[in-house]
Design goal:
It is built from 13 helices and 12 strands. The protein is α/β, with parallel strands linked by helices. It folds into 3 domains: about 5-85, Orthogonal Bundle (Arc Repressor Mutant, subunit A), CATH 1.10.10.10; about 85-165 and about 270-305, Periplasmic binding protein-like II (D-Maltodextrin-Binding Protein, domain 2); about 170-265, D-Maltodextrin-Binding Protein, domain 2 (3-Layer(aba) Sandwich). Strands 4-3-5-12-6 form a 5-stranded mixed sheet, sandwiched between helices. The longest helix has 24 residues, at about 60-85.
Length: about 300
C-alpha cells in the first residue's frame, strides 16, 4: 500500500514542479523530498518524474498517480470538512492573503470578528501584491486571498474568484490644496494635477495609469510610494492629490486632516475579490472564516448557501 505521507510529498512536487519549492512548502529538506520520492518510485517500480534543469515533470505513470493523488487528498479534505465541528476543536489555523489596503484597513476587523467567535483558532494574515497572493493560493500556502486588484485572463482561469463589492476610488487632498473647499470634482478637474501614486509595476499604479489615460486625463506625478500610509501623509502635508479606496482614510477624514471628494458620475472603481484554489474544497476552518465574513458580504453568503463552498 502507498504510504500517504510519501504520496503527499509526491502530490506537492507534482503540483509545484520542483523538489526545492516542495521542500519549502513542506518545511523539510530538499534531500528528504528526494529520498521520499526515490523510495516511492522503488516501491512502485516506476519512474515518476523526469528531472530537468528547470525542475521536474511527471512521467506518464507519474501523471496517472498525480490524478489519483489529487482525488485522494480531495476526498480527505471533504471527509474532514464533513465531520469536523470547528467550535469544539482545540486549535487550528486559517491562512489569508490580502493586498495592502485590505490587509491594513479591512482584515484586522475581520480577524477580530472571527476570533470573538473562535478564540482557540489562529488567523495567519499575509500582506502582498495580487500576483504573489495568487501564486501562494495556487501553491496552497494560503487558504484564501482577498484582493482589490484586476485579474488577468490567465490568472482567472487557474483560480476561483468572487466579487465581494465594487469599491469606488475617491480623491483625497490636504488643506493646502486649492480643491480643499471645492464641493465636487469632475474627471476634467484632475487633468494636469499633481498626484501621489503607488510605485511603477504595482497593480494599483497600472490600474490608475490605464484608467486615467482612457479618460484623457494626464496627471503630473509628484511622488511614488510603495505604501498607503506614506501616500496619505504626503497628501495631507502638501499640494498633491491621490486616488484611494474610502476605507483607507476614514480616520484622517474624521480628524479633518484629509478631505475626500467623489468624482461626478462615480466613474472610478475597483472590485474587492475573494480568491481560492478551485481544485480543493474549503477546509473546515476556512469555511468557518468565510461564514463570519458573510455577515459583511452577501456574495459569500450566496456562495455558501449554493453549496459551492461545501464538500
Amino acid at each position: 500500500m502507498i504510504d500517504l505521507y510519501k504520496l503527499q510529498i509526491f502530490d506537492v512536487v507534482a503540483r509545484i514542479g520542483s523538489f526545492s519549492a516542495a521542500a519549502d512548502r513542506l518545511y523539510i529538506t530538499q534531500s528528504a523530498v528526494s529520498q521520499h520520492i526515490k523510495e516511492l518510485e522503488t516501491s512502485l517500480g516506476q519512474q515518476l518524474f523526469v528531472r530537468g534543469r528547470r525542475g521536474v515533470t511527471p512521467t506518464t505513470q507519474g501523471t496517472v498517480l498525480a490524478d489519483y493523488s489529487r482525488q485522494i487528498f480531495d476526498l480527505l479534505v471533504r471527509a474532514e470538512a464533513a465531520v469536523t465541528n470547528v467550535e469544539q476543536i482545540a486549535s487550528g489555523k486559517v491562512s489569508i492573503g490580502a493586498t495592502p489596503g485590505v490587509g491594513i484597513y479591512l482584515a484586522p476587523d475581520w480577524v477580530q470578528q472571527f476570533r470573538t467567535r473562535y478564540p482557540q483558532l489562529t488567523v495567519l494574515l499575509q500582506t502582498g501584491v495580487t500576483d504573489q497572493i495568487i501564486l501562494d493560493v495556487q501553491a496552497h500556502r494560503l487558504d484564501l486571498g482577498v484582493v482589490e486588484g484586476e485579474l488577468r485572463d490567465a490568472q482567472a482561469g487557474k483560480i476561483a474568484h468572487l466579487v465581494l463589492e465594487e469599491v469606488e476610488q475617491v480623491v483625497i487632498m490636504g488643506f493646502q490644496h486649492p480643491f480643499w473647499d471645492k464641493p465636487f470634482l469632475t474627471l476634467g478637474d484632475l487633468n494636469q494635477q499633481s498626484f501621489i501614486v503607488r510605485q511603477q509595476g504595482s497593480q494599483s499604479r497600472t490600474w490608475l495609469d490605464e484608467t486615467l489615460r482612457a479618460h484623457g486625463i494626464m496627471p503630473i506625478i509628484g511622488a511614488e510610494f510603495d505604501n498607503l500610509e506614506s501616500m496619505k501623509r504626503a497628501v495631507a502635508s502638501g499640494r498633491c492629490l491621490a486616488l484611494v479606496p474610502p476605507y483607507v482614510v476614514e480616520s484622517e477624514v474624521k480628524q479633518n486632516q484629509l478631505r475626500v471628494r467623489t468624482i461626478e458620475g462615480k466613474p472610478l472603481h475597483r472590485s474587492l475579490k475573494l480568491i481560492w484554489d478551485r481544485s480543493l474544497p474549503f477546509s473546515p476552518i476556512a469555511l468557518a472564516f468565510l461564514t463570519e465574513l458573510a455577515r459583511r458580504y452577501s456574495a459569500i453568503r450566496e456562495l455558501i448557501d449554493s453549496g459551492s463552498a461545501h464538500p
